[in-house]
Amino acid sequence: MDRLLVDKLSGDPIKIKLKESQTIGLKNKIVISGPCAIENYDTMRAIAKELKNIGINILRGGAFKPRTSPYDFQGLENEGLSILKSIKDEFDMIVSTEIMDTRDVEHALDYIDIIQIGSRNMYNYSLLKEVGKTKAPVILKRGISATIKEWLYAAEYIMVNGNENIILCERGIRTFETSTRNTLDLNAVAYIKNKYRLPIIVDPSHGTGLRELVAPMSLAAIAAGADGLIIESHIKPDISISDSAQTIDILTLKDIIDKINIIGEAYGFSN
Amino acid sequence: MDRLLVDKLSGDPIKIKLKESQTIGLKNKIVISGPCAIENYDTMRAIAKELKNIGINILRGGAFKPRTSPYDFQGLENEGLSILKSIKDEFDMIVSTEIMDTRDVEHALDYIDIIQIGSRNMYNYSLLKEVGKTKAPVILKRGISATIKEWLYAAEYIMVNGNENIILCERGIRTFETSTRNTLDLNAVAYIKNKYRLPIIVDPSHGTGLRELVAPMSLAAIAAGADGLIIESHIKPDISISDSAQTIDILTLKDIIDKINIIGEAYGFSN
Amino acid sequence: MDRLLVDKLSGDPIKIKLKESQTIGLKNKIVISGPCAIENYDTMRAIAKELKNIGINILRGGAFKPRTSPYDFQGLENEGLSILKSIKDEFDMIVSTEIMDTRDVEHALDYIDIIQIGSRNMYNYSLLKEVGKTKAPVILKRGISATIKEWLYAAEYIMVNGNENIILCERGIRTFETSTRNTLDLNAVAYIKNKYRLPIIVDPSHGTGLRELVAPMSLAAIAAGADGLIIESHIKPDISISDSAQTIDILTLKDIIDKINIIGEAYGFSN
Amino acid sequence: MDRLLVDKLSGDPIKIKLKESQTIGLKNKIVISGPCAIENYDTMRAIAKELKNIGINILRGGAFKPRTSPYDFQGLENEGLSILKSIKDEFDMIVSTEIMDTRDVEHALDYIDIIQIGSRNMYNYSLLKEVGKTKAPVILKRGISATIKEWLYAAEYIMVNGNENIILCERGIRTFETSTRNTLDLNAVAYIKNKYRLPIIVDPSHGTGLRELVAPMSLAAIAAGADGLIIESHIKPDISISDSAQTIDILTLKDIIDKINIIGEAYGFSN
């Protein structure tokens, strides 16, 4: 592997400013949360309000949903973007959503702060080049069976096009194991923190697929060196439209954040 | 898995007309060949001429190349499309190339006959919907770690949007094995032929990554029930720009076709 | 990888004499068949008789069964060995069974002709050394996630201890795919035939886990270059104690052999 | 999966007494350390002395080495057992080594306290049954591609034969990723702690294959809920006979233990 822009030998670790007061990288850790899909305005607003109450400033929610079956709910699309914008303004939150089509990138940035590239589109080089032309923070999820090397090269596609505001996101890889939805690869977190410049967060929701594993694997992620977490939460997890089995309620999320802070104090970083 | 349009229970096996005289499906098998990337007009024309000489009517060649590294050759892009069109007209061949961006689909069909969806874009549902709106034959390669079920759902995305001219292509999956580039999953061929309506071809070049395995695995693919092959060939394999180690010369390709015809006679199908 | 005894550079391809008239290797191919487990004397004898009728001389049947659960049927053990011996004598067949414990190797050879090392014991180096001290033909199944390299080294353990009568057996590897029980890796067959000295057979029963895929994958295996097949069969597949879903009846087996012979004639080898 | 003896529904979590003062399970965590292989008496004694100095009471070291190649060092075998016994007596330590052959189990227990079943022998049911007949603590490593279910069934083989002193050990699984030696599956730790009775430790040395990842992954393992760690260490890692790249020095090990104790205090458990 040639020396890449993402390599520590090419520059300092990258610290990304999400808002005046909110950065990720170095000792600053973040927690992003919200439902899998934006279901409707009222539910989304209620979730955002509760998240804000427990100190979470970054809201996620899917407007465009990449579903395995064409017969499953495909998201509210542009209406979803409008809902995010409205909530962002009301609660002064940072909002993030997945973009799947090159034709949506520019338009979406009128509504949202952070672009997510989902696992299924990590190898979509046309899309990577397109977000590389913006300056928006990008969460780049690892492809479900992408090697660490391929994933870093995907980040390089964005960076070489001019955008270095990249947050890697480990979300579990596909293995032979079926007791859990995916195998969360925390080795990858420790490996990347050791040699590369980009901040990396972990998604324990998709990484495990099981609600009861979200808390321990969140703590493990932070202990392995992750710069943050992205966790699916809902005011009523059992009735969420998708990913119900891996979605936690707001109270459980609060407990996780409290425990992370204990580890944080022990290690000397702040959340 | 619900009953899908691609299921045999939903209709007859699909036979696709590529040209007046050339169909795929049922007992008609096809061989598609050509270089990994379109390097320049002269080389491409020379390859096409030799392929035509040994009876191959369907030419492949990459104009847009999805490369792991942004620093590798990304293809001749639109110039590549023009080269294909020119050769198609001169030699009366059917031409096929990979399209990676929703914005290129309509435009490309002025130049080519068959659209390939590459392994990296099998989950690119925006792209699948876009090719679903055309009537062009589509080669849908299996994602490098896509389950058979996910792959069939990807085909369903195309079909439900109105295009049933789908040729599945098994091209090897990612496993722990490193002696070969990928693991060619011929089980998938037999499985799909048993239960589903779509023709399926096999790519032994990417499926093995090793020139010396292309012949035996081509024969194995046909014996397993495949409707055809897509094989990387070049007049000078050793100097081809990409995938050199898995590219064969035209003479070797001729031998493969001869042996397939022997199996074909034994089984009662025609090539 | 250093040059090993199993490498073609170290000597001629190995041809193994199973009996005066039966060899494997070079152009001689074999078919081994029988039930997963030896259930009782009468059933085993009935199966053997039918196999003999369709020209199969090599009988398999498990006496010691490595089952995932300790609560599942563990085999008839020594009684199973006696049944095999009795049938071997009555029908003049070659018999093969799996041995799992170093303490059973010597004893078992009073009853059987061919020792099988099962997939779960491919890395059991104590057992490999022990069979290496005998001269008995050994079927060495590939570990469920063993690399080709590790598998060849396992064979080397047997060979360096003095026994070169090794028949490799590809029986499917563990991947992410769940539609089939395992992924039959025919690349491995072509790869090994290209560079190594040992004969290799294929087990399409475990390799697919599905009865309806056994015929096409048997043909594919032979087309890829395999020296033979080992296929689970039963007079009444649906009531066989284990592996029922992948066990075929004797008539289906007869059809497979007929088709293999057609391929064989085309290629110039004899069965 | 039927209800097993290892299931929490079948009884209380199991706490294992390794010595009067040393238990594992519930809130008691352990650290086992030492070199991959016992190289000679002097080196082993020097390592043991330094480990004892930093408070480690449980020594590991391989006497019988399961090596991929028959040409690699196979261990000191019985001489290795004698070395362990001598050090055990001098330093009042608990000693652990891997046993690979059913014929060695009884004999080895005259020398050692804890039997390890290595990854390659997890499916060796003859061996599992044999250690099941003893009362010795057994470290049961997960097979390199064993599902959690298969691993628990392997433990069940030991338990149903009468020995419940089983310590599971997650040591990384085989995936497509090659930047790290294996993929450490901490999901499995959280999953098993959630539903099963057995203590579970983690081997970050084999789990990563890289010295620089041992510390972060040790902390992650404890944060995920592991009951302990088994870590390869050496007084001179660079000259250790095997696994040098993943072996740490004693000072690094001391740091890891200090950090674990910080997490431990935060969570209320003792080391």
Report the portion of residues of chain A in β strands.
15-25%
Fraction of residues in H or I helices of chain A = 25-40%
The geometry of chain A reads as: globular
| Average predicted local confidence, pLDDT of chain A | 94
What is the subunit arrangement here?
homotetramer
Characterize the biggest β-sheet of chain A.
Answer: 8 strands, parallel, barrel
Largest interface: A-D, 43 and 43 residues
CATH class of chain A: Alpha Beta
| CATH homologous superfamily designation of chain A | Aldolase class I
In spatial order, strands of the major sheet of chain A run 3-4-5-6-7-8-9-10
CATH third-level topology of chain A: TIM Barrel
Count of domain modules of chain A:
1
Quick description:
4 copies of one chain form a homotetramer. With 271 residues, the first copy, chain A, is an alpha/beta fold.
What does this structure look like?
4 copies of one chain form a homotetramer. The first copy, chain A, has 271 residues and is an alpha/beta fold. Chain A has one domain: TIM Barrel, CATH 3.20.20. Helices cover 37% and strands 15% of the residues of chain A. The first copy, chain A, is built from 9 helices and 10 strands. In chain A, the strands form 2 sheets. In chain A, strands 3-4-5-6-7-8-9-10 form an 8-stranded parallel barrel, surrounded by 6 helices. Chain A has a two-stranded antiparallel sheet with strand order 1-2. In chain A, strand 8 (166-170), helix 6 and strand 9 (200-202) form a beta-alpha-beta unit. In chain A, helix 1 packs parallel to helix 2 (78-91), helix 4 crosses helix 5 and helix 8 (211-224) runs parallel beside helix 9. The radius of gyration of chain A is 17 Å and the shape is globular. Chain A starts with 15 loop residues before the first strand and ends with a helix. The model of chain A has no long low-confidence stretch (mean pLDDT 94). Chains in contact: A-B, A-C, A-D, B-C, B-D, C-D. Chain A binds chain D through residues 145, 147-149, 172-173, 175-180, 183-191, 193-194, 207-208, 210, 212-213, 216-217, 219-225, 259, 262-263, 265-267, and chain D through 145, 147-149, 172-173, 175-180, 183-191, 193-194, 207-208, 210, 212-213, 216-217, 219-225, 259, 262-263, 265-267.
